[in-house]
Amino acid sequence: MSVDEITLGDGLRTSPQGFGAMALTTVYGGTDPDSALATLEHAVDAGVTFVDTANVYGNGTNEELIGRLLTRRPGQVQVATKFGVAGNIRVGERAARGDAPYVRECAEESLRRLGTDVIDLYYLHRVDTRVAIEETVGAMAELVAEGKVRHLGLSEVTADELRRAHAVHPITAVQSEWSIWSRDVERHVVPAAAELGVGFVPYSPLGRGFLAGSVGTEIPEGDMRRTFPRFDAGNLDANQVVVETVRRVASTLGATPAQVALAWVHAQAGRWGLPVVPIPGTRRAERVDENLGALGVRLDAGAMTALDEVSAVVVGGRSADPTWVSAGREDVTSA
């Protein structure tokens, strides 16, 4: 399958839809490395050139998996990885760290695990509020000057943090949760990115599987979704109206719920005037093809209205710790 490329900020060209490799770890249950690699290779065959990982995914094993992909597909993949989260994200134990020595330490470790000399896009995974973001991004910029990193990104930053970082070094992309049921970034972060010419990479564009209709009424033990308030039993029940609306729109358009949810995210590029490259993840090759099918889905005005309206009735926050995501810190700042 051939897909047109899209340009994020600072000239980074990628496929219009990427692949979120966190799905290929144990955060949603057990996984097999060889099957995971086969899914990644299928994604590349299907036209995906942009793969997203992080040093904390699988405690480094996800980067090692991507390293195997790079060995088998040299020159065919742009890799984004992240640093700045310490702890076990699978069970909700985490802390942000962004001091300059840690930036370099993490980059060297990621380069080794990926088996590459340069990282295409290097993100600060979470802002360490104890460290000036200028220090963190300054250390990241040194990696660019040394040829170890090509582009810089930030994850879950506020608009103010983005502007301060961008003044130190051009920021290529902001990665934050953005979907039909997670729209808080539209208040401040998305407008700031558009203003600065920064691309946007929405993670969990399918609501961690919920918007695709693949989440039941009970989350199993060992599944990371149990740590998110909107997946609590009562909230999950109340939020069924969201996925029912997505299903209804999908039926009208002859698409799948996942394709509708992704088409809505792609539509935000035109709405906000900035490049948008969502990174859905999956363990199954057929889901890769289904997700890429969203690039051909066009939502009419009626569909957009229905999806926009239902986003306002979502129950439960997207993080147990509101300050872990940008909207929580913006709310604290403006209070």
UniProtKB/TrEMBL annotation:
SUPFAM superfamilies per the UniProt record, alphabetical: NAD(P)-linked oxidoreductase (SSF51430)
GO cellular component, one term: cytoplasm
Name of the protein described by the UniProt record: Aldo/keto reductase
Stored Pfam families: Aldo_ket_red (PF00248)
InterPro entries in the cross-refs: AKR, Aldo-Keto_reductase, NAD(P)_OxRdtase_dom_sf, NADP_OxRdtase_dom
GO molecular function: oxidoreductase activity
Originating species: Mumia zhuanghuii
Keyword Oxidoreductase carried by entry: yes
Residue ranges constituting the NADP-dependent oxidoreductase domain according to the UniProt record: 18-311
Keyword Chaperone: no
Gene3D superfamilies: NADP-dependent oxidoreductase domain
UniProt keyword terms in alphabetical order: Oxidoreductase
Domain of life: Bacteria
